[in-house]
Amino acid sequence: MSEIDPLLEGLTEPQTQAVTHVDGPLLVLAGPGSGKTRVITRRIAYLVKGVGIAPWNVLAITFTNKAAGEMRDRVAQLLTERQARATTVATFHSLCARLIRQYADRLGLPPGYSIYDTADQKRAMKQALEDLEINTKNFPPASMLSSISNAKNDLLDAAGFAKQASNFYDRTVAKVYTKYQAILERNGALDFDDLLLKTVSLLKQHPDVLAELRERFQYVMIDEYQDTNHAQFMIANALSAEHQCIMCTGDPDQSIYGWRGANIQNILEFEQHYPAAEVVRLEQNYRSTKTILAAADALIVNNRGRRHKELWTDNPTGDPVQIVTCADERQEAGWVAEEFKRLHEEENVAWGQMAVFYRINSLSRVMEETLRNSSIPYQIARGTAFYDRKEIKDAIAYLRVVANPSDEVNLLRVINTPARGISAASVKAMQAFALANNQPFDELLGDPLRVTALNSRAQNSVAKFGKTVDTWRTTAGIVAAENHDPTAPQPSLRGFVEDVLRDSGLETFYRNDKSDPDQERLANLGELVTSAQQFEEEYLFEAEQAGEYEQVHLREKLLAFLEQVALVSDADGVDSSQGSVTLMTLHAAKGLEYPVVAMIGVEDGLLPHDRANDDPQELEEERRLAFVGITRAEERLYLCHGKYRTVFGQTMPTIRSRFLTELPADVVEEVDPSSDPHAMEDDLFGGGGGTQRSLAAKQAGQFPPGALVKHPQFGLGRVVNVSPMGAHTRAKIDFTTSGTKTLILQYARLELI
Ligand code: ATP
Ligand code: MG
Q1: How much is the pLDDT for 322?
Q2: Residue 624 has pLDDT above 80, yes or no
Q3: What are the residue numbers of the active site?
Q4: Which atom of ligand 1 is nearest to the CA of 286?
Q5: Is the CB of 33 under 6 A from ligand 1?
Q6: How high is the pLDDT of residue 547?
Q7: Which segments constitute the UvrD-like helicase ATP-binding domain (predicted)?
């Protein structure tokens, strides 16, 4: 037993039950912070070490790359390095991307197929609408893409969609869908939804592949199952239908991706899909204080379509949840910055233990500026930011062109970037020629003389570029070399990326870029080389563990690297060890936890979002989103809103979120810096902060418990107590008509009666 002991150490009885469940379907249905993710990690280790199941038979699917990374790290602590690496811990998208690469020939795709991100998708969509001469005003590209995405999530391909289209709008979408898909196909590209869709058809249409994968992935585990969509359900189900060793964990109250096609029925009907299922409920929360948990519970009971779950905690009661009313977004950001600074200085809370959440990305700007001005280190969890930079997209586009000769979208991006004498008119002429001769655009690079519409200078430039691309492809093994020597040492990925940056002219271009005197873009390209190197080291290590070290070809490393880059997502940018405050959307916060959480913009129209107006279902999803935010907090929670907010340049009065009114008075404390916005600004920007602090101290003495006071808004009340906290000195007042409120003295404009 001794080997197993550490695997079960510190687990509760129901957690142990889930961890030691070996065969047959298992559902862990439990609220936030109850250890669902922990149970999956331990179960992986238990199956391998405790039961002796081969690690490569284990597949765990998490919601984000970051969660997968963390799970891998935890598993590595419980198993040997070799065992840990043999398990598969992935997201649905990364798993599918890998399977598609592996079985590309079955799907008629090049193994170096491109994965299109949102920007690439938009470009392909614009092209489709242009080709069909459809007016983008009536049929905006974004709504077309979202209709197509919905269809794909329901496993409807273009033909299937066309069949069921019954009105003019849908028939137009069907045409656009067909065209868009044809463009992707011509480019050897898949969008994110296609990754799932193609995997479903791979498993459906190739029984031998399915059999192989079932044999391989005998134990399937899925975290955050409440947010799986239909396609993901099909994949999970196909893999585990035979062995039935599927374990899902989730919480229906945290289902927040309905707008992206997630189907909450997957978890609600688990027992119907798997009648033999054992269901384990976890009821103890290890994350949050009693107060935070009570607030979360009080909120979520307002959702009608749910089954109530008991959740309790042994953790301390903790501080009340603070509802912070600010004058506007600037004061809100200032208040959060100052409170975080106070916690950091007075209570030794590390920056990395604090987070700010918001409903939509645009709310981060003012917060960022304020943190910057206050010299508070912060990071934004926007995983794609690095790869979104122009210079990085250029570099990646070059690598994609090397890997995937069909990828015209990326080829067009780089063909004259940096400028090499191939004008837009020349490109148009080549496109026309390719179309007329039914020839892939890429082939013209090797044979530009045939395009008689090009002048000889352009022909030369194209031929020269074509040669460079060809050399890259030969080096990378994408096209066969003439005197191929299989024993020759493989070039490194790092070296190859450096070659491409140099030979493409990108490096020189950014070195001489006058608009970037600090050479930041050049430094970013350097960072890309570093990331290629790190990826390569990891990749080789894994290959070595699997005993395949000798065989790793540059081509393989390049394709795997591009796949990883394409799958970076929002939550990936988070690294709390960096010692900085994390800013992220509520959606990205799923599964994470922080000792201190501030949610900003808790206003009607933002949270709940406007789109939930008049739609009770959407309103419930918004409430779940607020619930997810609240339940990330371990010790302290601030729910902030402004009385005014500037959106699209217009300052508008706001209404505090209805969710705030659903929180019971005994778990919240009202803080109202908005009563004196100027004092707050002065304090923040250094003007007169000191005098206000001493003023507050003086005031504290003026309002002894029991004193009768008057507030301009809340009327008459009696002081219950005063907590001296410097500039944040608070008084709890029992108002005759407005109930108990806690106010910051220096802003409260209280009068002693
Ligand atoms: P969410 O629904 O938010 O994803 P979860 O159910 O996955 O939450 P975990 O993240 O696994 O919860 O656990 C929450 C916290 O509680 C983690 O810090 C975890 O380490 C801790 N925890 C879980 N179980 C125990 C336990 N038995 N003893 C001590 N700590 C635990
Ligand atoms: Mg979890």
Answers
A1: 97
A2: yes
A3: 36-37, 223-224, 254, 632
A4: 16
A5: yes
A6: 67
A7: 9-289
| Cα 34 to middle of ligand 2, angstroms | 8
Using most ligand atoms within 8 A of CB, pick from 282, 287, 300, 586 the residue to mutate for ligand 1: 287
CA of 33 to the centre of ligand 1 (A): 5
Its CATH architecture, for the domain 6-104+196-284, is: 3-Layer(aba) Sandwich (3.40)
Fold designation for 294-384+574-671: Rossmann fold (3.40.50)
Task: Give 224 Cα–ligand 2 centroid separation in angstroms.
Answer: 7
CA dist., res. 596 & res. 288, Å (int): 10
Domains 6-104+196-284 and 390-564 share a fold: no
Would you call the peptide bond into 110 cis, given omega within 30 degrees of 0 as the criterion? no
**CATH architecture for segment(s) 692-752:** Roll (2.30)
Whole-number Å distance between alpha carbons of 601 and 583: 13
Q: What phi and psi values does residue 678 have, to the nearest 5 degrees?
A: -70, -40
- Between CA 194 and CA 115 the distance in angstroms is 9
Task: Evaluate whether 526 touches 502 at the Cβ level (below 8 Å).
Answer: no
Q: Is the pLDDT of residue 416 over 90?
A: yes
Is residue 261 within 8 Å of residue 154, measured between CB atoms?
A: yes
Atom of ligand 1 nearest to the CA of 11: 27
pLDDT tens readout for residues 301-351: 999 978 888 899 999 999 999 999 999 999 999 999 999 999 999 999 999
How far is the first Cα of the chain from the last one, in angstroms, to the nearest whole number?
72
Looking at per-residue pLDDT, the higher value among 115 and 285 belongs to 285
The CATH architecture of the domain made up of 390-564 is Orthogonal Bundle (1.10)
What is the chain's length? 753
What CA–CA distances, in Å, run from 190 to 186, 364, 413, 501, 681? 10, 31, 18, 25, 50
Q: Where are the domains of the chain?
A: 6-104+196-284, 117-187, 294-384+574-671, 390-564, 692-752
Please state the residue numbers annotated as binding site.
30-37
Three-state DSSP state, 224: coil
Going by alpha carbons, the residue nearest to atom 19 of ligand 1 is: 35
Identify the burial level of 485 via C-beta atoms within 10 angstroms of its C-beta, where 0-12 means exposed, 13-18 middle and 19 or more buried.
exposed
Predicted pLDDT of residue 724: 64
Q: How far apart are CA 387 and CA 396, in angstroms?
A: 8
Q: CB of 417 within 8 A of CB of 394?
A: yes
- What separation in Å is there between the alpha carbon of 454 and the centre of ligand 2? 59
Classify the complex by whether its ipTM is higher than 0.95, answering yes or no. yes
43 in contact with ligand 1, CB cutoff 6 A: no
Domain at 117-187, CATH class? mainly alpha
Distance (Å, rounded) from C-alpha 389 to C-alpha 101? 26
| C-beta 287 within 6 A of ligand 1 | yes
- Please name the residue whose Cα sits nearest to atom 24 of ligand 1: 35
pTM for this predicted structure: 0.79
